[in-house]
Amino acid sequence: MERAIAVILSGGQSRRMGRDKAGLTLEGQSFLDRMTEGLAPLFDQVYVSVDRPGRYPGRQELPDLRPGQGPLAGLETAFLRTGAEEVFLAAVDLPFASPDLARRVVAAAGDGDACVIRRRDGGAEPLFALYRRSCLPALTACLDEGRRAVKALLERVDCRWLEEDALGEIDLERALWNINTQADFSRAAERREEK
C-alpha cells in the first residue's frame, strides 16, 4: 500500500506561459521529468495531477474530480483516489526544487496535518509541501464553500511551519523559483548551470 506519495501539479492552463510548462526543458530534460526523478526515490509513487486524463501518456495520472478548481482540488483527488496517508504536493514549474528540500519538509512535519515552508517575509510555499489525510475534511469543506486558495486550508488545520531561517544552507530563491512566463524560462535557461 502507498503510504506516502508525491503529486506533481501539472500547471493548469499555463495562460502566462502560453504552453504546457510540464514539457518545458532544461538541460534536455522536461520540467515534469526533472520533478519526477527528484521525488521518485523519496515516495512510494509519483503521480501527476491533471485536469483531464491522457495528458501525459505513460504517467501515473490523477485526473481532477473537480476540474478547474486549482491545487486544492488536485490534493483532494489524491486522497480520494489513493490510499495514501501523506501527499507531498509539488508544482511542476519549480525546476530547481531539490530532493533535499523535500526531505527537509517531510522531516519537519512532526505529527502536524501539514508542513509548509514559511519565508522570512511571512509568505508561504504551499505548492512544495506535505499534507496528511487528516486534512481531508477541512480540504473538502474549503472546496465545497468555493474557497480555492491553499491559505484557506492552512487556516483550518494543524500546519507545522518550516522557517526559512532553518534552511540557511539552501538557496530558496533558486529552489522555489516559480517559472510562469517566457521571460522567466529564458532566465532559468541562462542560470541552469548555477549551483
Break the fold down into its secondary structure elements and pairings.
Blueprint: E1 4-9, E2 25-26, E3 29-30, H1 31-39, E4 45-50, E5 61-63, H2 71-81, E6 86-91, H3 99-108, E7 114-118, E8 124-132, H4 136-144, H5 150-154, E9 159-163, H6 172-175, H7 182-191
Parallel strand pairs: 1-4, 1-6, 4-5, 7-9
Antiparallel strand pairs: 2-3, 6-8, 7-8
Describe the structure in your own words.
The protein has helices at 31-39, 71-81, 99-108, 136-144, 150-154, 172-175, 182-191; strands at residues 4-9, 25-26, 29-30, 45-50, 61-63, 86-91, 114-118, 124-132, 159-163. It has one domain (4-191): Spore Coat Polysaccharide Biosynthesis Protein SpsA, Chain A. The strands form two sheets. It has a seven-stranded mixed β-sheet. By secondary structure, it is of the alpha/beta class. The protein is globular.
